[in-house]
């Protein structure tokens, strides 16, 4: 029988060789063999095989010694785990490699030196034969050694990799997942280093790691070697790219968030264990992105190619060479958490009360957890952690996994969505808030806290153990009604998770939330900061737009990203974006806004909506809004965005707005662009046919229509008792406009509050034959069920 090979070159292996070289090395070989012609660059190298590892254990007598020591292991006993792991690792490191294996390693490294130069730098990575399987992630369980130079150091690094198969976290992980310790073997990958110490590196997923949304690529990036991103030692830059329109040649970067990136790992002058070192990143580099937009898109394209080849969501490590500016893929493994979740049950966590916010960061998952906080400063304190508590620490690494699986929730100071704490929390189904910056300072050890990841991308840590509920809905057999059921939505952070609720798109996407939270400043103040008298406000504006050529581009970029995220989440369904509808007093409250807004005694019926868009006092701001919408539709390819004009008082005013939009490149009918009008003023009803001549559809704003029809201010406590959308006069007007708009051949829906609050009002609208209801997300499912029953009663089922 032919003896199994001890060394295999990457170009000679593929996924069929996983038992010999482990998942990591098999995937590297697979990409080199199959994807090089498609533009995927993978650094070359070789694998020390699992057969070589087994021979090493057999010939040195280590196999029986390890088996004997493992018999002393006690489940969930941290002291036993530490003792057993330490003894096994020490025994492996003391043993000599078989002479033939050491000679083959030295010979293979010599061939790399012929290609890349004497003492060329290599990465030495562990590749377990049970690693990166479709149903289990062994990420980070074994060690990696970077910038290894010279054959002697390489042999030592290989032996250390063998020993790392028995780190405490690796032993614990295998025991937890039912793997036999001696059945799992280790291959070692020896790969030419990419000089990302001179540039940047990171991780990307071909799926949203928090929501399971499969149409995006998530990219994390930081300066220097990529280990800091993997370990969660830095808060990295983060990018989302939309796959469907990327593949059609568009540039759909949905969002960009700059990370603090305070530290980076670079080469040191030493070899061996101290071959890399960590340094502080200069402030100017911390405050700029690691990647250009072209590089972000190129990485996303690579991710799509890899995913298409493997036919499943992938977890990919990349690196940029600072000497050549080339982008390389250095690892690719299956994503094992979100892609494996069942999609037929919608699970919603909801807080039933609120507390003071102690800190906030990035939310991992969408759950809520509560318990006593245990602030663990370093791994030496792990032993005092108690099951069911909330783990609060600076960052985690695989050594922490034995206690992580016992935690009610996890909170860290550092880390991005692809860090160790995030990956393990997802796998365990534990809520986790990462990158808070100051959790260990603001959370008191022993106090009760609630960790909430159910409010979008931002995760909050509240004081006290708050009450919450979990609502589960089986979606498997839910039919769609004939009446389109859409959502009212303004927060892009919630879009990827809310898209799972069965829906027909977004009937009202509000710009106000994006402007308030992501942009923060008045658009005219961004264009003309010199006209802002307040020096502090000018300084804050300057800080906001740092990194942008001007305030206008800042506004357009931020608004486009927010809208694009909403549009991508519900693609290809319609997302109807209402152009800004702040009142003058609300605009004045934006940064720098008071310099550009009039003081009005009744802003509710003052300078708002369509009247602003063509007026010299705001037209420049509306042009920025139009530029952002054009970028979403034409640059990013999200033509499912429709536009809606609010508070349009007269037909002539509507024509003026349409003309300004046309001048900005938003021409009705081009690339399927539709422009709707809010039906919220009695004149919109009285002149419905005339408005229908210039707009493609109507959306009833029952809130404003009710108060204008009844002649009352809904915010006035004195007359608030008269405000009711179910008033007969309001209902007659709504029934009339639905009939007349449909007769004119236009679409009509509603985005007001009434159908979300009153089931009988929703039923009334369906009976009137309305085309769509746009509801608050928390009422979509219950209203859908009622509409299905009603349509069946009306014979429309």
- What ranges have pLDDT less than 50 throughout 5 or more consecutive residues? 131-139
From the spread of the alpha carbons, the general shape counts as elongated
Q: What gyration radius follows from the Cα positions, in whole Å?
A: 30 Å
Distance between the ends? 69 Å
Helix tally equals 30
Secondary structure: number of strands: 30
CATH superfamily of the largest domain: Phosphoenolpyruvate-binding domains
Mean pLDDT: 91
Largest sheet: 8 strands, parallel, barrel
Strand content: 15-25%
- Overall number of structural domains: 4
Question: Please, could you describe this protein's structure?
Answer:
With 797 residues, this protein is α/β, with parallel strands linked by helices. It has 4 domains: 7-191, Dna Ligase, domain 1 (2-Layer Sandwich); 197-336, ATP-grasp fold, B domain (D-amino Acid Aminotransferase, Chain A, domain 1, 2-Layer Sandwich), CATH 3.30.470.20; 342-474, 3-Layer(bba) Sandwich (Glucose Oxidase, domain 1); 484-793, TIM Barrel. The chain is 37% helix and 21% strand. It has 30 helices and 30 strands. The strands form 6 sheets. It has an 8-stranded parallel β-barrel, surrounded by 6 helices. A hairpin with an 8-residue loop joins strand 10 (263-267) and strand 11. The longest helix is centred in the C-terminal third of the chain and has 20 residues, at 551-570. Mean pLDDT is 91; it is low at 131-139.
């Amino acid at each position: 029988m032919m003896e199994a090979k001890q060394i295999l070159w990457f170009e000679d292996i593929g996924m069929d060789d996983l038992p010999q070289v482990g998942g990591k090395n098999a995937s590297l070989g697979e990409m080199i063999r199959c994807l090089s012609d498609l533009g995927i660059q993978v650094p070359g190298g070789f694998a020390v095989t699992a057969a070589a590892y087994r021979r090493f254990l057999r010939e040195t007598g280590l196999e029986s010694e390890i088996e004997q020591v493992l018999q002393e292991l006690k489940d969930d006993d941290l002291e036993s785990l530490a003792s057993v792991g330490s003894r096994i690792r020490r025994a492996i490191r003391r043993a000599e490699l078989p002479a033939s294996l050491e000679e083959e390693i030295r010979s293979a490294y010599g061939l790399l030196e012929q290609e890349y130069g004497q003492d060329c730098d290599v990465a030495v990575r562990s590749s377990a034969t049970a690693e990166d399987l479709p149903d289990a992630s062994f990420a980070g369980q074994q060690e990696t050694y970077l910038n290894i130079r010279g054959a002697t150091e390489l042999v030592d690094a290989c032996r250390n990799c063998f020993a790392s198969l028995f780190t405490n976290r690796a032993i614990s992980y295998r025991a937890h997942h039912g793997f036999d310790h001696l059945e799992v073997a280790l291959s070692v990958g020896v790969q030419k280093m990419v000089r990302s110490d001179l540039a940047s590196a990171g991780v990307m997923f071909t799926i949203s790691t928090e929501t399971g949304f499969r149409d995006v690529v998530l990219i994390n990036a930081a300066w220097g070697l990529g280990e800091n991103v993997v370990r969660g030692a830095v808060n990295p830059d983060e990018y989302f790219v939309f796959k469907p329109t990327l593949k059609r040649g568009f540039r759909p970067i949905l969002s960009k968030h700059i990370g603090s990136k305070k530290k980076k790992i670079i080469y040191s002058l030493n070899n061996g264990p101290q071959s890399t070192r960590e340094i502080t990143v200069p402030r100017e580099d911390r405050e700029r992105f690691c990647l250009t937009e072209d590089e972000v898109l190129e990485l996303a394209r690579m991710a799509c190619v890899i995913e298409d080849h493997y036919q499943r969501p992938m977890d990919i490590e990349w690196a940029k060479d600072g000497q050549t500016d080339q982008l390389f893929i250095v690892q690719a493994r299956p994503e094992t958490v979100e892609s494996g979740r069942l999609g037929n049950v919608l699970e919603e966590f909801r807080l039933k009360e609120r507390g003071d916010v102690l800190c906030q960061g990035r939310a991992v998952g969408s759950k809520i957890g509560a318990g006593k906080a245990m602030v663990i400063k370093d791994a030496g304190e792990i032993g005092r952690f108690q099951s069911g508590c909330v783990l609060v620490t600076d960052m985690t690494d695989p050594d922490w996994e034995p206690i992580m699986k016992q935690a009610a929730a996890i909170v860290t100071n550092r880390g991005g969505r692809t860090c160790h704490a995030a990956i393990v929390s997802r796998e365990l189904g534990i809520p986790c808030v990462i990158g808070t910056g100051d959790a260990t300072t603001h959370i008191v050890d022993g106090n009760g806290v609630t960790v909430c990841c159910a409010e979008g991308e931002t995760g909050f840590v509240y004081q006290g153990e708050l009450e919450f509920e979990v609502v589960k809905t089986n979606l498997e057999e839910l039919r769609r009604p004939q009446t389109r059921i859409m959502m009212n939505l303004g927060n892009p952070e919630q879009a990827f998770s809310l898209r799972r609720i069965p829906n027909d798109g977004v009937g009202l996407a509000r710009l106000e939330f994006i402007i308030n939270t992501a942009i923060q400043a008045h658009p005219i103040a961004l264009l003309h900061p010199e006209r802002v008298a307040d020096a502090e406000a000018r300084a804050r504006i300057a800080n906001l737009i740092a990194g942008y050529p001007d305030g206008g581009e800042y506004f357009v970029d931020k608004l486009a990203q927010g809208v694009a995220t909403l549009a991508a989440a519900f693609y290809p369904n319609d997302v109807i974006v209402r152009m800004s509808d702040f009142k003058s007093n609300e605009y004045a409250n934006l940064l720098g806004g008071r310099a550009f807004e009039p003081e009005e005694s009744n802003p509710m019926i003052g300078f708002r909506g369509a009247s602003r868009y063509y007026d010299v006092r705001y037209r420049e701001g509306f042009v920025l809004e139009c530029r952002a919408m054009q970028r979403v539709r034409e640059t990013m390819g999200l033509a499912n965005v429709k536009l809606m004009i609010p508070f349009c008082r007269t037909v002539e005013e509507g024509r003026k707005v349409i003309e300004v939009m046309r001048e900005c490149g938003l021409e009705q009918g081009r690339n399927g662009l539709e422009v709707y009008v809010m039906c919220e003023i009695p004149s919109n009803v009285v002149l419905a046919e005339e408005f229908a001549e210039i707009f493609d559809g109507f959306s009833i704003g029952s809130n404003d229509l009710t108060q204008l029809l009844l002649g009352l201010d809904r915010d006035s406590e004195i007359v608030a008792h008269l405000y009711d959308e179910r008033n007969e006069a309001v209902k007659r007007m709504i029934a009339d406009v639905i009939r007349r708009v449909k007769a004119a051949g236009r679409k009509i829906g509603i985005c007001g509050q009434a159908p979300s609050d009153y089931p009988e009002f929703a039923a009334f609208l369906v009976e009137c034959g309305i085309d769509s209801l746009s509801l608050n997300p928390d009422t979509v499912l219950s209203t859908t069920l009622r509409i299905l029953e009603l349509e069946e009663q009306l014979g429309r089922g």
